[in-house]
Amino acid sequence: MSDPREELCRKCGRCCRVKLIVEDEVFVLPETCPHLDPETKLCKVYERRYEVNPDCADMQIAVGARVFPADCPYVADIPDYRGPIEVN
């Protein structure tokens, strides 16, 4: 069952970029998960994403790990949320 908050997703694909965690900072690299469709910005293996990609985090883990951009609707109601640093 999916999280009802997934309806908030703008399908930007930014949360599907590769992350590098160094101490307490999260860096988002330009590379994306190989399962992200670049045209639709949707996961090609969504129903099996945790099985296919063990690095894919569920929403609660992703929020706690600060992988969502600060302007993401998933974290809009979290006071003082600090998103990852984007590396281009």
How would you sum up this structure, described in words?
Helix content is about 10%, strand content about 20%. By secondary structure, the chain is α+β, with helices and mostly antiparallel strands. A 3-stranded mixed sheet has the order 1-2-3, with no helix packed on it. A hairpin with a 2-residue loop joins strand 1 (about 15-20) and strand 2. About 10% of the residues are buried.
Fraction of helical residues: 10-25%
Largest sheet: 3 strands, mixed
* Ends apart, CA distance between termini: 34 Å
Overall 3D geometry? globular
Strand content: 15-25%
Strand-and-helix sequence, N→C?
A: EEHHE
Low-confidence blocks of residues: none
Radius of gyration: 13 Å
Adjacency order of strands in the biggest sheet: 1-2-3
Fill in the keyword field for this structure.
88 residues; alpha+beta; 3-stranded mixed β-sheet; globular
